[in-house]
Amino acid sequence: MATQHEPRPGIPSLFTQPPPIRDPLTTETVQLQETTLEKCLTFLKGLHPSQTGPFNAAGVPALLREDHVAYLYESLEDYPAGFVAMDASRPWMVYWALAGLTLLGENPTHFRERVLGTLRPMQNATGGFGGGHGQTSHLASSYAAVLALAMVGGAEAFALIEREAMWRWLGRLKQADGGFSVTEGGEEDVRGAYCASTIIALLDIPLALPSDAKKARDAGFETLTEGVAEYLSRCQSFEGGISGSPGVEAHGAYAFCALACLSILGAPEETIPKHMNIPLLLSWLSARQYAPEGGFSGRTNKLVDGCYSHWVGGCWPLLQSALDGKPQTTGVPSETVGSLFSREGLDRYILGCCQTPTGGLRDKPGKSADSYHTCYVLTGLSATQHYHYRTNVSVSPGSAFESAFSWRSSPMAAEEEVYEPADRLVAFHPLFVIPHQAAANLRLWCESHPISV
Amino acid sequence: MAGTYAADPEWADVSPIELNDGSESGAMPLATIAYPSDYLEATSYLRAVMAANEMSERALKLTKDVISMNPAHYTVWIYRAKILFALDKDLLEELEWLNGVSLKYLKNYQIWHHRQVLISSKKHFPTMPTKEPDFLMEMFTQDSKNYHVWTYRHWLVRHFKLWDSPREIHDVEALIQSDVYNNSAWNHRYMLRFGPRDDQPDAGMINAGDSSVSPEEKGRLTVVDEDLVDAELKFAQKQILRAPENRSSWWYARGVLRAASRGLEEWEEFAGRFVDGEQTKSSHAVEWLADVYAEGEKAKAVKMFTMLKEKYDPIRKNFWDYRIRQMGVVA
């Protein structure tokens, strides 16, 4: 059996040995964790027969760039009948593939016509995009559609979005407690707040509530963004993490949505400490990283999953920037709290455990690749490869979203890293999860084409 | 397309709205699906009746048909709920059907919002349907950490004011007994014991969501039932003794002490029982002692943080170093 072999050279024992303390008690959670650990160890040691390498001096396999590119191009084409469950997620399929391809260095703009053609029938005259033609508008579909249009870029793509109708629709989604429901008649959660804030910031949507925003107006709100931060504050659980809605268990995906939303609504050094208990949050977030796996889990006592490379990993630049404080310069800050998690651990998990040999990335060994995991595992890898910081120069100076448009990134120094320089990915904006320039272009175009309300 | 609906006289007056998947733009649409013909037909009729906002028995049947082929189709669920109320249908019957669908599609969350929409009707459900907890426990036998089911159960507690219901705490204890690492159950327990009641907005901790109150005050009760606090601490200790390397039970205890504004030092002796050189049985106990010592005995705190970063939890080295630096000590 492969696990009996010596690991490849260059791998610290932290990533080849089980944790030092294990309880004698056995439950379902323990059994699942042990099984996952065993599977991961073979991959972390670089001993699984499907791992073709090449492996570098740190014992880390190379990124299968061409295979992942081919996988994502294929993911944009036709699906057989068995994929009917995806019928309400086609904007996501487009976003995940374009984002993944962009991270891998491909140019998504040649998809412009096809993206426009695909998304046009999904937009509703009453505002927003649904998951497909004839489907009710949904904040998740609208988020994915707006980001896909931002990535392919160009005036025709930007002009496709009916922003006045979007503004009215957002008003109808706003709830009396400050949050947003994801669709009219649908559930309210932290995803809704994040997707709405992203759309508002990128599209320069007027903040004043439209006249038919009944629930929000009755609650005394005057703007779309008022009360959102307070709603998110109520989603922090006693563990310190953030739940999908108030009172539920802390969860990595919702933590990213909440922290990114707070960082869009204002400067993170102000909004995050004002609304979150930082020591509890840091401790919970830090505990998401496991050894020897190196990857993140989404919740306490749950398994690692590659998608949390983004959802949990993406929280770190935001929190680190909040701790670094108000940006003082046009460049890299002179003092920083630095990286508070193990980039090496995450990189080893991503490159060792999440790559499938035929292209595409996955949750964990034993699972199949899909475009959701491919996108967010790659986003997580890219985030570890860059230092994300804010400057005192913004794409949108003086606006409500000045801080959100002041992020920059620079590559981490190669000598500290366990992956090869050739495996470096494109940097993404840490709040909008598309290239910095794509976000800036969309915002600036919208600022120069204001909607009259 | 000669399908079931086209051939049915009941549907003869409806002109189906064909799918526009983007092909008409001339550009090849992206991520297209080779839909089964019966799905294509049913959704074409769905678009037509939804466009007319039709509230009818046949539309209701159609929604069930679409759900059977694609339960992730959120639009059809919202439409179905509207029709059920418009036609004043028997919602208990709907719940029965929903139970089967829920057990079949464990990861689906449209189902749970639909259930919430139905049960939130005070007219139909002035009190909780009696079989509800049994069904939720049946769901938990399939997946005891199902996030959507727990989200729904939390809503149910708040909607029917079940914080002190014996059944709630009984179910939580049964789940913790069978898997002490079930963090979802621990969270539910915390909300039953220390979450805001109906005189305050819902929140994961009390004192949240008011910008004039510091986040440091989150989770701290103004009126403390010390007997309840002591009982919960005792419960946590019992569970820690079963499995000392379990973050859920240690962090529950932290939440309980925070609720009572009592310090971690009252558990210094208890935590110390699990920290003994090579025989150390809990990294969470080491962290507990580090936090106790960080208040004054910095050298001892550094020793604990160093144990964590070097031996018991080294993947979090950067975080432990940060904790050391925060005490004003060079890491």
Strand content bin of chain A? under 5%
Mean pLDDT of chain B, rounded to whole units? 96
Spans where pLDDT lies below 50 across 5 or more residues of chain A: none
Mean pLDDT of chain A: 96
Radius of gyration of chain B from CA coordinates: 27 Å
So what's the oligomer here? heterodimer
Helix count of chain A equals 18
* SSE succession of chain B: HHHHHHHHHHHHHHH
Sheet with the most strands of chain A? 2 strands, antiparallel
Percent of sequence in beta strands of chain B: under 5%
Shape descriptor of chain A reads globular
What is the CA–CA distance across the termini of chain B?
A: 73 Å
- How would you sum up the major sheet of chain B? none
- Low-pLDDT ranges of chain B: none
Distance between the termini of chain A: 68 Å
Fraction of helical residues of chain B: 55-70%
Q: What's the number of helices of chain B?
A: 15
Q: Biggest sheet of chain A: strands side by side, in what order?
A: 1-2
Count of beta strands of chain B? 0
Family (chain A): Belongs to the protein prenyltransferase subunit beta family.
Region (Disordered) (chain A): 1-23
Keywords (chain A): Metal-binding, Prenyltransferase, Repeat, Transferase, Zinc
InterPro entries (chain A): FTB, PGGT1B-like, Prenyltrans, Terpenoid_cyclase/PrenylTrfase
